[in-house]
Design goal:
By secondary structure, this protein is mainly beta. Among the domains are: 85 residues, Carboxypeptidase-like, regulatory domain (Immunoglobulin-like, Sandwich); 80 residues, no CATH class; 48 residues, no CATH class. It is built from eight helices and 52 strands. The strands form nine sheets. The chain has a 22-stranded antiparallel beta barrel. A six-stranded mixed sheet has the order 9-10-13-14-11-12. Strand 43 and strand 44 form a beta hairpin. It is elongated, with a radius of gyration of 31 Å. The termini are far apart. About 3% of the residues have low confidence.
Length: 961
């Protein structure tokens, strides 16, 4: 018997409702608990503080304060307990005793004193396993030196965090939150980050996206004493090794200047934190292409072109205590960016360079109300205004010689993009006996105004295919019967023949007969402006029920909807449990078994609606032409009005009437074990299935009718590219997490994952090889990277040195193998070959991946999608740091840690790709390219080197007080 989706949702909804209503009746009364809030001396709430509760036998239980500074620890047997609290940047609270009574929760609030930040090693908040919802063994918490060990560059930092999050995020990838808000701009500088939490509480209904792959960043708050930090980052090409795909070592220079200060604004009322970072980078784009020299000879081009980048990050935050139980936080960020010569690199030559000016203004406000000892409410608001300008001075038509070179103009024109985003949250947390109930609503909106001149100058495309064989003098080679011999030629050979025969004054028809001539021409025109707006809303309720001291049950439901699709309300139930087997006496648990199930939805991006609004056939016209009478005009560009007057069919972009939100059904089971020497091991199996995955399809592509003629379903219309949601994604993973804190000198974390992912689409921009037959599309997903290993940690070495390695190893990623032709006339070069049966056919290419027929006939077996496998990846980073403390330390009170010296100077050397290992990018999959099967760039994982340097050595100097 098969259950329908609606039946499944209804059943889960009923189950969760009964759970939420009935569970208080079964709450255990023989145990008690402790709850409260942790604040600083100004009353500001402290999040992510670790509360440690120790019974008379020395057994510890720990819990971490939430976003409202609240904590709850239930399932405690009656008796006397010792409580202490730890938090980064604060002196450890003095241990205090509290009596726990059966059936009651004792309230215990803690006020912490700010101290000069101490560099502690923290890999995970917990030294032992337990059943708390936020303490799953697959999660990682980074702060202090572990955060310092990651790359200083924001792009490299994001790449490192994504590598640690692993491949468990499903087809849509990771999602980043900064201070509880969806991150839509650049990451804050690493020095402004207080803590990073990865993959924690994966089945919480508070979040819309998958918990595996969620990255939560918390920035630093203000303080009641003045503290400051200054940092200088320096790197030059002299320190770095040459990119192996560049002909020579390219000039490079990078300086980052960072400064921050925090302190009081109003005594006992308000604090502030201000930070800025200025990045001045003279980077390079590496061009590796196949071009023609002045004598029209095919040659390789390897060139490094400077791409200057200047970025500023500035942020100001203030915390104000409105009343005893109300705290208001305001944050403003200003992020201007100036990039030069972007749009070039790989196959794109210098003629395609254009500039980008990008400015973000970000306003955030948060109000936290502690209504009473059991209820806390948090309201958040974010507004982001983004303005981007593209400046292109080259108006010549673009030339794309597929997988050989991209020349001509960039075809972006002088365009601009205005985006306004807003986001409102209201969340409430209540403690009801053995239950912690959290509920809330999030509403987000975006409005986009875009003036785009993309492809207004036109683009000529040259592809490979069959053509007559020519000798060295471009003369026809004939067989014994005096007939031309056909052979496969590459895209660059077709382009060469076009120019050579034009210079010889051949007619366009003669050029095409000899294998020259453009393959396709496209051009846009009309109104360049398009607008779109979108609003989505989500409501959730979550109950964490401490059934017994060793059993936690969690259940929740999330409701979501958006306005730019025809789908209705989406229901996303989530359930999970954490159970530890009983132990002898009062021994702490050494094993925890966790499991969970949840449904997660992805919102349909407003960018799809924007494209549909733009290319709707009236607002802006888009033409894709294969008519030889027009192609033979190369290099001249026909006017858009001429094409419209001659009734050339337009290309339409639209969204399917049946388009709906993709949703992922994810389940997981894990076993966590506390091993000797403070080592924690977690073994997890994660199963993911995504339905209604997005794809694009040409629904008016030509097909062969019964008479053998190529016809379109609508003969009066051109191509219709339609966004659809009928794809599927299946993923199975086995994940091993190992973390250890031997002592304050050594800590590490290691993650290994085995991953198998299959799908029939790789996203909204993925087209099938055959628009009318999707059966051959199911195969390896682009995310099918089988093995991945991540290692990081810190070692306090002799002479006060701190060593921080960070290692990523993975197997190769798949890539698609295509013919490089448009055999089926759908205007797309996504056709895949068949497996060859006759090696003597002129359409057959023999490669190390197999023998392929580039012109499959009826009944031929098309090769699977993403058949090729690229090279693996190996990257090792190392940071070496030495800190000097000086100045007169304040007198201590004899309790707690000894006072620190007020001034600290740190000097660090950061090495990316320590062993200078060459990590090649994905090979070229176009069989009609002379570079097929080769890589022409390094891997794009920015945490390990970049386009300019294979190995990079940087100097970092930091001073704080």
């Amino acid at each position: 018997m098969r259950w329908s989706r609606k039946s499944l949702e209804l059943g889960l909804l009923l189950l969760i409702t009964l759970f939420l209503l009935a569970s208080p009746l079964y709450a255990q009364k023989q145990t008690g608990g402790i709850k409260g809030r942790v604040t600083d001396e100004l009353g500001g709430l402290i999040t992510q503080a670790t509360v440690i509760v120790i019974n008379s036998a020395g057994v510890e239980r720990t819990v971490v304060t939430n976003g409202e500074g609240m904590y709850t620890l239930s399932g405690l047997e009656p008796g006397t307990y010792t409580v202490r609290v730890e938090s980064k940047g604060f002196a450890e609270s003095e241990s205090q005793s509290i009596e726990i009574h059966a059936g009651r929760f004792q309230e215990f609030n803690v006020t912490m004193r700010v101290t000069i930040e101490e560099q502690k090693v923290t890999v995970n908040q917990e030294a032992a396993v337990n059943t708390d919802a936020d303490n799953n063994g697959t999660g990682i918490v980074l702060k202090g030196k572990d955060l310092d060990s990651l790359p200083d560059d924001p792009d490299g930092l994001l790449a490192a965090l994504q590598a640690m999050a692993g491949p468990s995020a499903g087809p849509s990838g990771t999602q980043v939150y900064v201070d509880g808000f969806t991150a839509n701009d650049r990451l804050p500088p690493k020095q402004s980050i207080k803590e990073v939490r990865i993959n924690l509480n994966p089945f919480s209904s508070e979040f819309d996206r998958l918990g595996f792959g969620r990255i939560e960043i918390t920035t630093r708050p203000g303080s009641e004493q003045f503290h400051g930090l200054g940092e200088f980052f320096f790197n030059t090409g002299r320190f770095n090794s040459r990119n192996p795909f560049a002909s020579e070592r390219a000039p490079f220079n990078a300086q980052y200047y960072y400064g921050s200060i925090s302190g009081p604004l109003i005594h006992k009322k308000a604090t502030f934190f201000a930070a800025f970072q200025y990045r001045n980078v003279i980077d390079n784009a590496i061009i590796n292409a196949t071009v023609l020299d002045p004598n029209l000879r095919i040659t390789r081009l390897s060139e490094a072109v400077e791409t200057p980048k200047r970025e500023l990050f500035s942020s100001f935050s203030a915390d104000y205590k409105l009343k005893d139980n109300h705290t208001f936080t305001f944050n403003y960020r200003y992020l201007p960016t100036r990039w030069k010569n972007i749009g070039i690199g790989d196959f794109s030559t210098t003629s395609r360079a254009y500039d980008l000016d990008h400015t973000d203004h970000n306003f955030r406000m948060t109000e936290i109300s502690v209504i009473n000892s059991k209820v806390v409410n948090e309201t958040r608001f974010q507004y982001l205004h983004s303005h981007r300008e593209l400046k292109d001075s080259n108006n010549s038509p673009a030339i794309r010689v597929l997988e050989a070179f991209n020349g001509g103009g960039a075809q972006v024109g002088n365009s601009f993009f205005n985006e306004d985003r807003w986001e409102v949250h209201n969340y409430t947390t209540s403690t009801l006996g053995a239950h912690v109930v959290r509920a809330g609503v999030r509403v987000r909106g975006v409005k986009v105004q875009n003036v785009s001149l993309t492809n207004f100058g036109g683009t000529y495309i040259f592809a490979g295919g069959l053509a007559p064989r020519l000798d060295a003098n471009d003369q026809l080679v004939l067989d014994a019967n005096g007939q031309p011999i056909n052979e496969l030629i590459t895209s660059i050979e077709r382009y060469r023949r076009t120019l050579a025969f034009q210079q010889a004054h051949f007619s366009p028809e003669e050029i095409r007969a000899l294998g020259g001539g453009a393959t396709q021409f496209s051009i846009a025109g009309g109104n360049p402006e398009a607008t779109v707006s979108r609003v989505d809303a989500g409501f959730f309720v979550q109950d964490d029920w401490r059934v017994r001291p060793n059993l936690l049950l969690s259940a929740g439901m999330r409701f979501e909807s958006q306005n730019n699709i025809h789908g209705k309300m989406d229901f996303a139930p989530r359930v999970s449990f954490a159970w530890s087997p009983p132990t002898r006496g009062k021994e702490p648990p050494k094993t925890v078994i966790r499991g969970g199930f949840g449904i997660f939805y992805d919102r349909i991006s407003e960018s799809l609606t924007l494209q549909a609004n733009r290319y709707n056939g009236t607002n802006q016209q888009l033409f894709s032409i294969t008519d030889p009478s027009i192609l033979n005009q190369f290099p001249n560009v026909p006017a858009v009005d001429t094409l419209a007057n001659f009734a050339v069919p337009q290309t339409i972009v639209r969204m399917s009437d049946q388009l709906r939100s993709p949703y992922t059904i994810q389940s997981a089971i894990s076993v966590e074990r506390q091993l000797p020497y403070k080592t924690t091991l977690s073994l997890s199996f994660v199963n993911t299935r995504t339905l209604h995955l997005l794809r694009s399809r040409n629904i008016n592509a030509p097909f062969t009718d019964e008479a053998g003629q190529q016809v379109r379903p609508d003969p009066n219309t051109g191509d219709i590219f339609q966004y659809e949601s009928n794809g599927v994604f299946n993923q199975r993973q086995f994940v091993v997490n190992l973390s250890n804190r031997f002592n304050n000198r050594v800590s590490f974390y290691a993650i290994y994952s085995f991953n198998k992912a299959d799908s029939d689409t790789d996203g909204s921009g993925s087209f099938p090889a055959n628009s009318y037959d999707l059966r051959d599309e199911y195969g390896r997903s682009s995310l099918d990277i089988r093995h991945r290993f991540v290692f990081g940690g810190t070692i306090n070495a002799p002479w006060g040195l701190v060593l921080s390695p960070f290692i990523v190893l993975r197997s190769g990623a798949p890539f698609n193998i295509t013919t490089g032709r448009d055999n089926n006339g759908d205007s797309l070069f996504a056709d895949r070959p068949s497996f060859a049966t006759d090696l003597n056919s002129p359409d057959v290419v023999v490669t190390r991946f197999g023998a392929f027929n580039l012109n499959p006939g009826p009944g031929d077996r098309i090769i699977p999608r993403n058949l090729g496998s690229g090279p693996g990846f190996a990257g090792v980073n190392l940071r070496i740091e030495k800190m000097f403390a000086f100045g007169s330390a304040p007198k201590g009170n004899g309790r707690g840690p000894a006072p620190e010296k007020p001034y600290k100077l740190s000097v660090a050397i950061s090495v990316q790709n320590l062993f200078n290992h060459t990590n090649a990018g994905l090979p070229i999959g176009n069989l009609s390219s002379d570079l097929f099967g080769q890589s022409n760039t390094t891997s794009s994982e920015g945490a390990f080197g970049n386009a300019t340097s294979n190995r990079r050595i940087s100097l970092v100097v930091r001073f704080n007080f």
